[in-house]
Fold these 3 entries.
Entry 1:
Amino acid sequence: MKSRTFAPSWALCSALLALPQLSTAFYLPGVAPTSYKPGDKVPLYVNSIKPVAAQDALLHSVMSYDYYNEQFRFCQPEGGPSYVSESLGSILFGDRIMTSPFELNMMKNETCKKLCTSKYDMQSAHFVNKRIMQGYALNWLVDGLPAGQHLLDDLTGTTFYSPGFAMGTISTTDPDGPTFFNNHYDIVIEYHKVSGKEDQLRVVGVIVQPASKAYKGDNLDCNDNQIPPVVLAEDANTETEVTFTYSVYWTESPTAWATRWDKYLHVFDPKIHWFSLVNSAVVVIFLTVTVTSVLFRALKKDIARYNRLDQINLDDLSGTSALEDGVQEDSGWKLVHGDVFRTPSHPLLLSVFLGNGAQLFVMTGFTICFALLGFLSPSNRGSLGTIMIILYTLLSFVGGYVSARVYKSLNGDKWKLNIALTPLLVPGIVFTTFFFLNLFLWANGSAGAVPFTTMLVIIGIWFIISIPLSVSGSWLGFRAPAVEPPVRTNQIPRQIPPATTYLKPIPSMLLVGILPFGAIFVELYFIMSSIWFSKIYYMFGFLFLCYGLMIITCAAVTVLMVYFLLCAENYHWQWRSFLAAGMSAGYIFANALIYLISKLSLGGLSGTVLYIGYSALLSFLFFILTGSIGFFSSWWFVQKIYGSIKID
């Protein structure tokens, strides 16, 4: 058969092209399916109320609120609401799932069922109206599926379910007019019959169509379209009475349980993903081929010339090496062979950063691979955050080992300080920043504030599991032999000549950092949209490829910069390679600020501080990650080229 005669390169290309599709084609659910019989109770849980894009397509807040916040006055179940158990990742991402008073029974339709009546005074009316204007959405869960709205993508002509639904609406005719508060909900639930078992029914879709209806008295005719909408009055000494109602409609669907999430996972413009991916791949391939060919030809010529020069000097004791055409005295990168492996400034800090960078590198790779294979299904809420915390904790061993091995190779002598700082410095910066930002959430009464008990759990994981693993890794790292340089280091450091403009620290960092950023720029936009606009991100196939392209780009451009640096007789390559590759994080932070100006309209100080703080935190972690990639690729390169020449 022809398929058996494909070249390995074609097989590899086919596999890579198929990767972006795996995130939907290969579905490994995070929970087992729940089957119901006709009449069985189907629980409806409520989640925290989060902001989404308002009618002007901008995000006006980053604060989320508990569903049963006293200002909302939503109806509560008998005996009060109770929390539903959640994973650590779900709590960190702001989920606060609780029970509700809604009664859903499988295949039993309900019409205009009354929940309760609430009264809104001036303060609560102002609070709710402001949340409506900011575009807040209610988030319900039925059998693990988010209740959403049925939308049409005008660009592709496809329909999809958007998780969450509006708390209220603003008058379309008068932007400065009143806000309408939704108090009636038409809940449409799609179910699927298990093959061969007619009495086994499974929920495969949930749609909520909210409406605003100002009922008068006991007349609860929710199908009457002539009922005026609810307007919460903000006048002093005035209370607005609101009656909450809901209807339930069950419809059979051909959608199987295993594919029920497909309608929620919508790509708004898939061509942008493919275009950006192909564009990045072409740039990376061109860059890698160029760097490889230039370095290979230049190094091959340099190494041959240096080794030939050494041979001539041995044969011709009179030193008339000019007899050999094209052979000159030492120049370029060989001149600094006695200084290139000299211990850099602040080796302790560099080794700590590199250990944490290696830890982040392995954690990110494993997380993306798990997500790519479908293990981090959106049906298992918070699984992404949970697996990241677990992997980062367990991989503390890798961080400790790498940090100790690097510090020993850099001739560091403060080994006790290295063992202590590796698990404390970078995680300490992250935790302190996270705790500081969490204070803003606590002060504003946001549901996104991580509870104090969860903070204690994180500290416990850090000190009981992460630090001992890091210390054990450091112990093995210091026992392992140091990475020996292929050449000896001179006692007296060589003077460094003035550098050209593009090899100075700031210009070289700006030039090197922009290329890895360009490889992930488009995917970064979709990730930020999913984080701040409460959308589901699932395109881990594209993310996997972008991550690989970013690694290759980061390594290639950093190696090229180090080669030019050594040719200019500058042997301070250790920190330069780390900072230049890490500069891509500076571009990410600048992109976040542009995103703040163009897509967000936060207004208040707290929202702006939270956005900038979390963006700076993510940029710092990316700085450690990419800086480590740049350093280790440069270290490998320097070891190779100086191990290929003969030194007297």
Entry 2:
Amino acid sequence: MHTRDVQDRQIQLLSEAARRASGRVDGLQGQLEGLEASERVYAQQRQAAEADVAGVEREMQQARRDADAAKAEHERLVRVEIELNEKLEGVLKDLSQARAEQRETAREARLKDMVGALQRVFSGVHGRLAELCSPTQHKYDVAVATVLGRHMDAIVVDRQATAIDCIAYIKEQRAGQATFLPLDALHPPPTSDSLRHAHRGARLATDVLQFDAAIEPAVLHACGSALVCDSLDIARHVCYERKLDAKAVTLDGSVIHRSGLITGGAGSRGQRSKAQVWEAAAVDNLRKARDRLAEELQGVARERRRLAKEDALAERLAGLQTRHRVCRDALDALVRKLQGLATEHRHMDSSLAECRPAAAQAAEELDQAKAMRAEAEERIYAAAQPIFADFCRRLRVPSLQAFEHQLLPATEAAEERRLHFRTQVSRLDSQLAFEQQQLDEAAAKLAKLEQAQQSTITALASLKADQAREQAEMATLVAQIESLRSELATLNAKYSDATEDVHAARHTLEKGLKELDAMNKELRARATDMERAQAEKAAVLRRCKIEDIPLPLLRGSLQALPLEVSVGLSQMSIDDTQSSIMSVNDDIAPDFSTLPQDDRTDAPEAVDRKYLAEIARLSAEIDALNPNPHARERLESARA
């Protein structure tokens, strides 16, 4: 029995060791399954975090591209604005130097209007000579203006008949006076080629002009054989030493005439003013360039205002960077957690690999112990059966083994329950140790989170202070904006009042211009009546002179009265006849004191009819009193 008890205790110990090893394996297996579940959850969270980080990085790249594009566009606009401002400054400087702000005279305006009207009415009108030709270089402006002289404002037409029609039209419209150059009536002499080689610094005026071949006769007529010289010394050399029969004009407007006289000095100022005719086109181009540059600057300003969202892009990029840091921190935390789980997984795998052979060995030893106990029990029962035969008969049991089987089942069941409870306690101890480890890790993470929370609270307090400061500044800016808005409203009101004043002034100006136009029309009508009266007066005076009619005069004499007024064809100017008539009318003043008072106050038409009737009556009486010149001849023939 002693051996049996020893074997029972050994089996109990081996059974307990096997249960502990199996429980440890089961615990490690459960922990491993929990770790694998946690790894799957964290892996899913890591994938989501990686997707968030990738999305934020894409948004950051797009925001950086937008910000870089906006910055590049802003820099480009700044460069363009600087270039445009420099160009505009140069254009304004050129305009100031060219005196572009000076207004054209009233005579030039009337002349331009007259030429435009003639070109609309007559197809053969080419235009002013100064507008049809231009110097090849700016330095020749004054010299060419001096050469052309009075022909600069001459109007070039194709035929002489067109010039006569234009003169009639201008006279009818009372548009002033002008000089015409009919191309078919102009036959200028050819220019000698020797003048082109007179001096290196002298050239023909026609060679420094740009003009159409169709108006060449007019240009040759106006310029003749004039030479444009670079200096007065060259002009003296050409005229005095080489004795060329040509007029020499220097670049500053000095002139050496064919007769040898020299003209120059302050008198060239008028030629300089005439030379500004060719600068008009350049000035117009400068003004157009000024307007174009101003419009481009306005466009650049609009583009810069449109790019004001660059601050919003910077704020968006800063927000994305903050979001990227948060997502990256979360991703790094998940990666570290997964790394820890992987390390723990490897540790559990190694522990499980170590525990499984021990559990198998304990189970094998338990089986061997049970087999040895079974053999020992067989030997014991075989040896004890004869000894306990009477005992078995009294208890009415077939054998000692059956007796033990009936007596000890409760003990074995209790022992089994006790072993089971020990196994459960051992498993719970292992799980408690694992949970305690997890609790310690969670406490460490909680401490880190609390520390991060404290840092976040500190940063939040700083951000709130910054926000309060920014809000104060924003309130100041809002107040300034409101003040500027009120000032803008005041300025808008003043602008509206000024606009109304301008409209009223424009209305008054238009009304005054209409009244001035009406007065000008009335003045022109009165001038026409005066011209007609002056012409009739001149005709009467001319008739008195022709018919030798004595006329009482206060001043002047009929002998000084010209009988005809001639006008050239190659170069015709209007109002020549009117000028001669007006000079005659001013020189001769009839004496109307002998006329009756009624004839002085009555209408001129009635007085004319009255005296014409009286003249006709007297003429008839004179004709009746005069003898017939053929009567004497008829009388002598009758006597013969």
Entry 3:
Amino acid sequence: METRGPVLHIVVVGFHHKKGCQVEFSYPPLKPAEGHDSQSLPEEWKYLPFLALPDGAHNYQEDTVFFHLPPRCGDRTTVYGVSCYRQIEAKALKVRQADITRETVQKSVCVLSQLPLYGLLQAKLQLITHAYFEEKDFSQISILKELYDHMNSSLGNTSLEGSQVYLGLSPRDLVLHFRHKVLILFKLILLEKKVLFYISPVNRLVGALMTVLSLFPGMIEHGLTDCSHYRPRKSISEDAGLQENTPHLDDSVSTADTSDTTLGMGKGGRKVAGDHSLDTQKGSVPFSPSEKTCNGAQSSNSAVQRLKVPSRASPASSESDWETLDPSILEESNLKEGERENTASEQAENLLSAESLPITVQPQANTGHAVLVPGLISGLEEDQYGMPLAIFTKGYLCLPYMALQQHHLLSDVAVRGFVAGATNILFRQQKHLSDAIVEIEDAHVQIHDPELRKILNPTTADLRFADYLVKHVTENRDDVFLDGTGWEGGDEWIRAQFSAYLHALLAAVLQPDNEKTLSDFGTVFVAAWKNTHNYRVWNSNKHPALAEVNSSHPFQGQYSVSDVKLRLSHISLV
């Protein structure tokens, strides 16, 4: 079955009083050879029921969750899930199945998509979920089939450039809640640390986590395609306990061979219609792999190779062989294949040099005209500044919501780090498995390692930047709420400030004799960042557009009495 648009499946997950969470319906079937009502799951998606029907959902009448699934059949593209949960009294049902024995019925309607349109999918899905429950007869599945057709037709030409990608993600609310600590969250992820977000209900969790990621230029649109490569445990019995079992060292993790994947990438903003940005060298490939590929053995797609986990890896270490590679080695390994890679490189350079887009120091709101080229090493579609940074690649996971059954991933040697969300207190209690725990309710960022706290201690220029954000958001709060069109202090404005901050940091590291400039960003922070995978990948390429960017901190300047007050107020907030 060939998919006509970005939506792969519509799935209904229910809670069975004996079997627990299970798939009750899928359209098209999750396994092509089986029926719509099959409860059988692809091995890669074995955690789907627990993600779509989140832990503790019974405490709420309705909720929404965003989650990420691993790719299937050798395709290296993340599958983005949005699930709307509701519960209804069993006595209200017009048709009551024999297996409904409890007083309430709990179900989720879930969309699995190849595009990260979280808020847009949520808005459509909430309406349909409400209508599905209003039928009071869950055998009426025609509305779900109509949803599949409607979404694929309405989203068929949706570009990933523009404000609709950020629907429902509000940096303004994030700054109002976390205030100066927003910059600490931003830097934690830049350093590729193990960051766990915690709160219940789950919609507040995923909203806050994805909003932080939206501060990184291009991250939501193009930076998450490789963020969910993990290997599910092979048996349910292994998932049952929370004991830290020693992983098998012969396990492997999928990594992209960018020399092949870059050849089929499109030359512009990624769209659903036309060539998909992650098409393989074979040319135009439909959104979902063919039935033969998914139904048989693992795909032998040459765009995916197997990288063995280093034998000396340990759960306590986040460093791995691929993370310590010299960029020149990365470059050579990706260019050994010969003419095809040279051609891709030339195309990238030609695109960068041929386009004459205006380059400004202060980024403007996203106009949807960014020129994107395939990164030869990152495998991501990059703009002229090298954005998005290759943070969520090579074993650094983004899991907006983690089910308890995925707990083993926190100590998996093939996972070098993560930004993950959890509602179960067991995750929060095991502090040794993360570098930082973000308690959203109290806006508290708990960093366990004193050295990491020192690295993330904001400089005077950083405090000025954060204070600038907080003041503009709070002072313009009423205006933004009234007309919804405010620029300063609004969502797009905040994203533009973080984009300017990151561009300035990148421009600064390229300058000779830059010690004084980098000290405004934090000397120890910059030194730590230069050891990350995302920095080495970015630094292995040239980004001439950054020559036009001011290479100093946006808030550099002489120390004053107001800075002392700012420092004291920050200390009191920590």
